[in-house]
Amino acid sequence: MNPASLALILFGVFLNACAQLLLKAGVNNVVAAIGTFEYSFANLWPVGLRLATQLPIIGGLSCYVVSVAVWILGLSRVDVSIAYPLLSLGYVLNAAAAWWLFGEAMTPMRLVGIGVIIVGVYILTRSA
Predict the structure, then answer these.
(1) pTM > 0.90
(2) What is residue 106's DSSP assignment?
(3) Are 9 and 86 in contact (CB under 8 A)?
(4) Within 13 Å of residue 115, how many CA atoms lie on the same side as its CB?
(5) How far apart are CA 113 and CA 32, in angstroms?
(6) 89 Cβ contact partners less than 8 Å away, ≥ 6 residues apart
(7) Residue 128 has what pLDDT?
(8) Quick one: pLDDT band at residue 104, thresholds 50, 70, 90?
(9) Which residues contact 123 (CB under 8 A, 6 or more apart)?
(10) Among candidates 81, 61, 71, which has minimal Cα distance to 18?
(11) For residue range 13-35, what is the model confidence (pLDDT) as tens digits?
């Protein structure tokens, strides 16, 4: 895998991770404004409208759209058996960013899991 192809794949992973974080931020905004909402048909319109108008959610969905385009470009240059496992780096990015941005727990078991992912991705990319 050449550096340009790797950059495309990693940029797609980064955009996907950003999308998740933006969606979480948007949902957090709604929960902060109205409290935890009940999943019911009666809430579908008011909560759905509030979610749909959150800038972080709109940004997250936009990141998804761009990430799909970048991902398609990456897949045109890299075997899917190599590219797809690299998506697991998104878990690493999201765990670190969620800890930093949202104060989510970073337990020893999560750190071990993140280490396993990093080692696995390293082995995978060395075999390409």
Answers:
(1) no
(2) -
(3) yes
(4) 7
(5) 31
(6) 10, 13, 117, 121
(7) 65
(8) very high
(9) none
(10) 61
(11) 999 999 999 999 999 999 888 87
Cα atoms in the Cβ-side hemisphere of radius 13 Å centred on 2: 5
pLDDT digits 0-9 by tens, 57-85: 999 999 999 999 999 999 999 999 889 99
Counting residues of the chain whose pLDDT is more than 70, the rounded percentage is: 99
Task: Of 13, 30, 3, give the one whose Cα is nearest residue 87.
Answer: 13
DSSP 24-93: HHHHHHHHHHH-SPP-SHHHHHHHHHHHHT-HHHHHHHHHHHHHHHHHHHHHTTS-HHHHHHHTTHHHHH
Residue burial 96-107, b: 16+ Cβ < 10 Å; e: rest: ebbeeeeeeeee
What is the Cα gyration radius of the chain? 17
Scan for tokens 């709109």, then name that residue: 58
| CA-based nearest residue to 19, from 78, 69, 85, 80 | 69
